[in-house]
Write a structure and sequence with these properties.
Layout: E1 5-7, H1 8-20, H2 25-31, E2 45-47, H3 48-62, H4 78-86, H5 92-103, E3 110-117, E4 120-127, H6 137-154, E5 160-164, H7 176-180, E6 184-185, E7 192-196, H8 208-214, H9 220-224, H10 232-240, H11 251-257, H12 262-271, H13 276-292, H14 299-305, H15 311-322, H16 326-334
Parallel strand pairs: 5-6
Antiparallel strand pairs: 1-2, 3-4, 4-7, 5-7
Helix pairs in contact: 1-3, 4-5, 10-13
Protein name: AraC family transcriptional regulator
InterPro entries: AraC-type_N, Homeodomain-like_sf, HTH_AraC, Tscrpt_reg_AraC-type_HTH
Pfam families: Arabinose_bd (PF12625), HTH_18 (PF12833)
């Protein structure tokens, strides 16, 4: 079971290209196990498993890895072919250079290019031709896929120092904090990710058999399920665990378990654009959504499981997280929403 959830915004944004091409997106949602009714709840979220399935359905139905957003189709297998090329690269710098060379074979090109200056490296988005991407989904996906593919290949997260976007902050801009774990800059002159140049010399540690396994569910999993094991956010989530019915570890205990001082940990979480309280709140929210999908569990039992002694307190907190009561949310998941 994955702890992570994905905002309704990304579900709807992902389907925009398919809708424009006349596909039955309700059918795609149902096949992915997502009730179209649930998406009527403005602050609804789906599990990362559901989102991953939806992305795979989109790619296979459209036969287009750009999902109907690009100036041309990217035929199925394009990403896998690029991965087959980069798996033999010695280090991350070679991976990004080789991936760019591959992508520029297609015209108009949609890719990212590696630039270096002093101690900094940048992956800069290069998009030619007209794209149809009103919710920025294609642009976000390219950033996320290139960053997370590189991190997976070298077996450690490429820690981002800054993510910048050449468009204004969108309404769902707050979600970016949990995607990129770094300071954000909207309205910039480019769309790019900045990181320390030292990551470029990190060796590729994956082999061809690992890559074959990886490609069974990627790039869908890269978009829906980041490997957070080496971010402080991810490590704290793992230390807290899933059992909220007992007292949670305090911040000092967490810092000691991570072999760091509370001050340093606070600073690192600030760099990752979050806080200890927010990590706990979002983990509670994600667990509550997961338990609500298990229809046999009474709502009062779920309240206890996610650490609320009073069901009324749980109802208030859940409404703050999602805009609706746990009961209405469950009806949305069942496809019986009347609100």
């Amino acid at each position: 079971m994955s702890n992570l959830t994905v905002s309704r915004h990304f579900v709807q944004a992902a389907l925009t290209g398919a809708e424009n091409l006349g596909f039955d997106t309700f059918d795609m949602l149902r096949e992915a196990g997502i009730s179209p009714d649930l998406l009527r709840i403005e602050m609804a979220r789906v599990s990362s498993d559901q989102f991953s399935r939806l992305m795979q359905i989109l790619w296979s139905r459209l036969g287009d890895e750009f999902m109907g957003f690009g100036p041309r189709r990217a035929r199925s297998g394009t990403f896998a072919t690029m991965c087959a090329l980069v798996i033999d690269c010695p280090n991350l710098e070679a991976v990004y250079r080789q991936a760019f060379q591959f992508s520029r074979l297609f015209e108009p090109m949609i890719t990212m290019e590696l630039e270096t200056s002093g101690e900094k490296a940048q992956l800069v988005t290069r998009i030619e031709g007209e794209i149809h991407d009103p919710s920025y989904f294609l642009r976000e996906s390219i950033l996320v896929i290139w960053h997370r593919l590189g991190s997976w290949l070298i077996g450690q997260p490429v820690e981002l120092e800054k993510a910048e976007f050449d468009y204004p902050r969108p309404l769902h801009g707050d979600e970016y904090r949990h995607i990129f774990h770094c300071p954000l800059e909207f309205g910039s002159d480019r769309t790019a990710l900045t990181f320390d140049k030292r990551f470029l010399s990190a060796p590729v540690i994956r082999d061809k058999s690992e890559m074959r396994q990886f490609l069974k569910t990627s790039p869908a999993d890269l978009l829906s399920r980041p490997d957070e094991s080496n971010t402080f956010t991810g490590r704290i989530r793992a230390l807290i665990g899933r059992d909220f019915s007992r007292p949670l570890p305090d911040f000092e205990w967490i810092a000691a378990a991570l072999h760091t001082s509370p001050q340093t940990l606070r600073r690192r979480l600030k760099q990752e654009n979050t806080s200890f309280q927010e990590i706990k709140d979002l983990l509670r929210r994600d667990m509550a959504i997961y338990y609500l999908s298990r229809q046999e569990l009474p709502i009062n039992d779920i309240a206890a499981k996610v650490g609320f002694t009073e069901p009324s307190t749980f109802h208030r907190a859940f409404k703050k997280w999602t805009g609706v009561t746990p009961g209405a949310y469950r009806e949305g998941e069942r496809g019986n929403l009347t609100e």
